[in-house]
Design goal:
By secondary structure, this protein is α+β, with helices and mostly antiparallel strands. Helix content is 18%, strand content 29%. It contains two helices and 17 strands. The chain has a five-stranded antiparallel sheet with strand order 3-7-6-5-8. Strands 11, 12, 13 and 16 form a four-stranded antiparallel sheet that branches. It has a three-stranded antiparallel sheet with strand order 4-9-17, covered by helices on one side. The radius of gyration is 34 Å and the shape is rod-shaped. The N and C termini lie far apart (93 Å).
């Protein structure tokens, strides 16, 4: 056999080996593509409606999703808080008007759309460090267990997060507050002579159906709650104490 024939035979053998390797690679790729025809969700949850019907043409990089899987347990709840409230909270903390809420400061409770309280407390996961320039608010995220799947994605809830405690706070029932045409707050206070006097007040946020009084009232003073339309400033009244009293400590909450 000539040297040329030997070289041709060796080249043909190497080419055949390369073709076999190429066919094996194509076979392995076909097996991978076949495995990818069955899509497995990376998380456990519930799948919603399908956006693609069986038999429809799909591609590997299409923008339209086949379906959306929602993780329902645990559930993330995003809370927005205005930057103005954060600044006021820090000022109250530094001035001593508020004290830290203690070890339970990271616990969050929810009020559902129907007014009921969600039975499982959540915990604060993190607070964003960037203020949204379009809304001037910061986002807080809380994590809640959802074993009964009462919480659903997109549901509106009201979150209450204890941030600070004001000892000896004065809470005024909302029906006792009087506002004039300019929106200024006041209340009818009964003095030691049993005379009703109109007193200007500074009120803050609403706490469980009461106004948090910033200034204008002192502890132990009597305020007219019922029959305001029949009582005029300077009138003598006979005060009758209610059976229930407002709590003396106001927990600052966020909604």
């Amino acid at each position: 056999m000539s040297q040329q024939d030997a070289d041709d035979a060796n080249a043909a053998e190497q080419q055949a080996v390369a073709e076999v390797a190429q066919q094996r690679a194509q076979l392995a790729r076909a097996r991978i593509d076949l495995q990818r025809t069955r899509i497995t969700a990376p998380i456990s949850g519930r799948i919603g409606r399908s956006d693609v019907t069986p038999g429809a043409l799909v591609t590997a990089d299409q923008a339209q999703a086949l379906a959306t899987v929602q993780q329902l347990d645990p559930m993330y709840v995003d809370i927005t808080r205005s930057s103005q409230d954060l600044l006021r909270l820090r000022d109250d903390m530094q001035a001593g008007r508020l004290q830290g809420a203690g070890s339970d400061a990271a616990m969050v409770t929810l009020v559902l759309e129907d007014g009921s309280t969600y039975p499982h407390p959540g915990r604060l996961a993190f607070a964003d460090v960037t203020i949204d320039p379009t809304t001037a608010s910061v986002t807080l995220r809380a994590v809640f267990p959802n074993p009964e799947q009462r919480l659903l994605p997109g549901m509106y809830v009201r979150a209450m997060l204890a941030e600070g405690v004001r000892a000896e706070a004065i809470l005024l029932p909302q029906q006792a507050l009087i506002r004039d045409a300019q929106g200024n707050a006041s209340a009818l206070v009964v003095d030691e002579n049993a005379t009703a006097t109109l007193r200007a007040l500074q009120v803050g946020r609403s706490v469980d159906g009461n106004w948090l009084v910033e200034s204008g009232l002192r502890r132990g003073e009597v305020v007219v709650l019922d029959g305001l339309q029949n009582v005029q400033p300077g009138s003598r009244v006979v005060p009758v104490a209610r059976a229930t009293q407002a709590p003396a400590v106001a927990a600052m909450t966020t909604h």
